[in-house]
Amino acid sequence: MSALQPAKLLALDILRLAAYGLRARPLRVVLSALGIAIGIAAMISVVGISTSSRAQLNQLLSELGTNLLSASPGTSLFGEAATMPDESIAMLGRIPEVMEVSAIGALPDAKLYRSNRIPASQSGGLAVYAARLDLLETVSASVAAGSWLNAATSTYPAVVLGSRAAARLGIGRGLIGQQVWLGGRWFTVVGILAPVSLVPMLDLSALIGWPAGERYLDFEGDITTLYLRTDPDAVETVRTLLAPTANPEAPNEVDVSRPSDALAAEAAADVAFTGLLLGLGAVALLVGGIGVANTMVISVLERRAEIGLRRSQGATRGHIRLQFFGEALLLALLGGGSGVLIGALVTAGYARVMGWPVDIPLWVPLGGMVATLLIGGVAGLYPAIRAARLAPTEALSVG
Hints:
Elements: H1 11-23, H2 26-64, E1 68-73, H3 88-93, E2 98-106, E3 112-113, E4 127-131, H4 135-139, E5 143-146, E6 158-161, H5 163-169, E7 179-182, E8 185-193, E9 205-209, H6 210-216, E10 225-230, H7 235-246, E11 254-257, H8 260-302, H9 304-312, H10 317-354, H11 363-389, H12 392-398
């Protein structure tokens, strides 16, 4: 007569047993799942916010273009400040791939104040530049209030303020037409710029017309920075030609840069910072896994009588292992699912507040759930094996 074969547990049976074991201890289950949820939510939020930020940056670069180049005088072989020829703008405009060229010239001795009663030492760090009329189109800037300089106002004491410069001077949209003390005389504010993403130094600047600088502030016409837009497919070619064209006699004295590279560097810094925060999220996830293990070990100790009774009724060690292993996985799954949902909501909320597109890569929630199940499985493995090793008589006597 053959021995009776033990019944096999179906996946649905294991799920029911695991759910029953968790429902019997709701508070402990919630606290343990919360540990997992915090770790997963932290990881989802960090990655989601970072990718959403980069999506916003890519969208901004797409709108502004990455074909803006700038050139400024460097230093001579003797370490002295170099200058650019007055013909630089015209010479660069002859390059076929160059679409627009503009320039600004610094007036270091011209200080900007809200009124003539402010002490000279309190200039607020605001810079003053003479600007070409085509500067806005070249650097993809726009006017937030008032108007930009034109052929008429560029010859008179009129000034356009950068966004941060206007804020420091306390001049808002409704104060267009007010006067400011610039270079020892009154200038009328005719406009305020919106933030200039590709050339942020303009945000802290006051811009006057090139002729007005020469007429009122003894500006000698020295070029501080050249800006040029190129054919998007010829950026590197123009970058190579820029220095020798702008200053043929001393191309080594011209510093060439690509303003969009600064935004790309910002994105790279965000990646490094994201790595650090992901490490913190991983630590939180590990702590959550320890919480699951602790819950399952205590559960085994408290349920010895139940284990002994099930063993005495024919449950095998494999059945017991599967029951407690299933409880650990289900507990981790509850925490992981909650964490994914919380992390997605946090990312979406933060992105909406910042005005960014919401970008959560598919691999992030999938990876979070896989990590959760792995941690839950590892955390529940030892308690499951320990429960299965209990002999029926030992477990019943303890119970």
